[in-house]
Amino acid sequence: VTPEETKEIARVVIEGIPPFYKGLEFYIASLIGLASVAFSVMAFIEARKAKVAAAKAGTTVKIQTITIELTEIAQRLDKLDYDLEFTAARDLLNEVNRRLRRLVAPFQAYDQFKEACNELKASLDSAKDALDEVRPTSGEVEATENVVYFGMQGHFASISAGVAEIMGLFEAETIETLNESRTTGTL
Amino acid sequence: MNPGQQELSDYIIQIVHRTEQGEIVWSQAAPTAFISTRDTPSGPKKMVIQRASSGRRPEPNFLFQVKAIKRDEGGELAIDTSEKPYLRDVFSILYDAAESSVDSQTTRILRELLDE
Hints:
- The structure holds two protein chains of two kinds.
- Chain A is mainly α.
- Chain A has helices spanning 3-16, 24-78, 86-104, 111-133, 140-143, 147-184.
- In chain A, α2 (24-78) packs antiparallel against α6 and α3 (86-104) runs parallel beside α6 (147-184).
- The radius of gyration of chain B is 15 Å and the shape is globular.
- Chain B has a five-stranded antiparallel sheet with strand order 1-2-3-4-5, covered by helices on one side.
- The mean pLDDT of chain B is 87.
- The N and C termini of chain B lie far apart (51 Å).
- Chain B is of the alpha+beta class.
- In chain B, α1 (3-20) packs parallel to α2.
- Chain A binds chain B through residues 123, 126, 129-130, 132-138, 140-141, 144, 146-147, 150-151, 154-155, 157-158, and chain B through 27-33, 35, 46, 48, 50, 52-57, 61, 63, 65, 67, 78, 80.
């Protein structure tokens, strides 16, 4: 067999085999492959949405727990005795100060809460200064029952207003999260 | 200011004058509260003048109280400048006068100590 004949045989063989993309199997395999990739991408997107929704649900539950505690603090601040004594006012302010700062601390970094948190902290500082101004320098202040009440009630009212404002922001955040969850179908 | 308000204001100014003359003596019950005790025909009474900052509002409030020392004698009075803002200026003057009265007593006591 001459080299020319060999080439001719090879050409005939090659031309006799159809290219792989002309076969039905190729398209079936390609379709299955593409469908697999599409389903994988969709599964990834859904998993991501579920993760975000779970995180938001966790935050919502945490916010609702904090809101309950804030409500209790606000109610205590709104029920001041007219004959409030200095020691009672000091104990109440210390407790409220400690609890409020702990509750709002995780939210201070968020833009939507920052201003309200700062105002609340300013009110707490202002109340501390006011408490120093009604500290008894003689026994007479205890005999004049409403001196401490008069000196502190405006400040406790400011703190209560600040707490109410933060509770409102928390509720707005919860509603927003719920709406978002309904829209994305993760609820 | 109506005549009633003016009369009330005049009485407060009279207390200021008597404080300045040393006739009414005040003692400090708290850094922002001053008390003075006086005998009246209906029994001993105590006057209290107190200044309080009012949360977010910049201007201070004043509370002026007159109380019977024996609770069953009555004759109590409480004036809050958040309800009667026209009295804020006179109560501010009275508060300053009471503060000066306490300072004068402190000075007198220190002088007596040093004289000894």
